[in-house]
Amino acid sequence: MQAVKTSLTRLLGIRVPIVCAAMANGANAQTACHIQVEVTRGGGFGFVGAGFSTPESLRQDFDFIRSSFPDRGNKPLPVGYGFIGWLLDKNEDSAKQLLDITIENNVQAIWLAFGTDIHRWIQHVRTSSANARAHHKPLIFVQVTSVEEALVAANEWKVDAIVAQGTESGGHGGASAPSTFTLVSEILAALPQDGAAPAPPILAAGGMATGAQVAAYLSLGAAGAVLGTRFLLTPESAYKPAQRAALLAARGPGATVRTMALDTARASFGWPPNIDGRGLNNKIVDDIEAGVDHATIQARCKAATEAGDSSYMVVWAGQGVSLMNEIKPVKDVMVELHTDLVRQLQKSRRLLQEDS
Length: 356
Ligand SMILES: Cc1cc2nc3c(=O)[nH]c(=O)nc-3n(C[C@H](O)[C@H](O)[C@H](O)COP(=O)(O)O)c2cc1C
Known about the structure:
GO terms for molecular function: nitronate monooxygenase activity. This protein is of the alpha/beta class. The chain is 43% helix and 16% strand.
């Protein structure tokens, strides 16, 4: 199938400007990597969510990823690793160890998000990769939720790519982020892609389920699209069957909600100010709103998770979930997205007519 060329595909050497989001969910290491390996094989690029990784789980990951991409020689491993800033901040030594293992394994890119001191970790990656035996300096991707953050990332930190995450997105994100369409438009206006000063490629993230939506962001000027939730509806996903079934059943504007309720239910505290998360709107949210005490909610959530009762489980999901109708292998999701993207771009081209 036809390749789609953008500044992102040139940067990464890929054929399809579709990126699997870094999604930390504390899953078994190799389950977490299966999705990313298949996204890369499908022509896109996969970021493994390493927010809760340990040195041991990283080593297991790399054994698996290396065996998935044999004979790379000195070329970087065609996957990225995503870290969460505030979790790195908790313990400097262990953070550096995790980043260094990732760098030594010659990954193509590192993604950073959700921290008040992201620059510190960018500097560490740059210094450490200059000293390491790695043959390649990982590209730096930073996820932002406002135009101000994008300007700092581009102009001060000189990152290689910016992920513009809008309010529709699943999982954690900016509590006051605008829609993805508005955010990407604002960032493109502030960082013109064809201006005199070189600007990093801008990737749109949040709420996408189809290749046609990806095409819309490319037409707007984005260099690529990041999808997270879509890859949770796959057999490779670490989500439990009950969570996947809940994603399939989710419909309508109220199906998901941005809230801190889901973090409260899993006692996950420490997120930076103004970050909350989007997930399926369920009985957890009702109980928080009704003022049920947090210990009770946490106990109910734990019991429901063990029992596979999705009505009281944390199920992160973006607003695009309403358009997701099928659980199928990542490979097939990539074929569908790629085909739909190419078809939509061809259709858009037909909108142009020569003046007669
Ligand atoms: C289960 C889940 C876990 C996520 N974990 C992370 C993470 O570890 N780091 C991060 O930067 N973003 C994380 N995100 C947000 C994604 O990077 C991305 O912005 C989002 O998935 C895009 O929206 P979509 O899910 O609607 O496609 C997560 C999203 C989900 C759904």
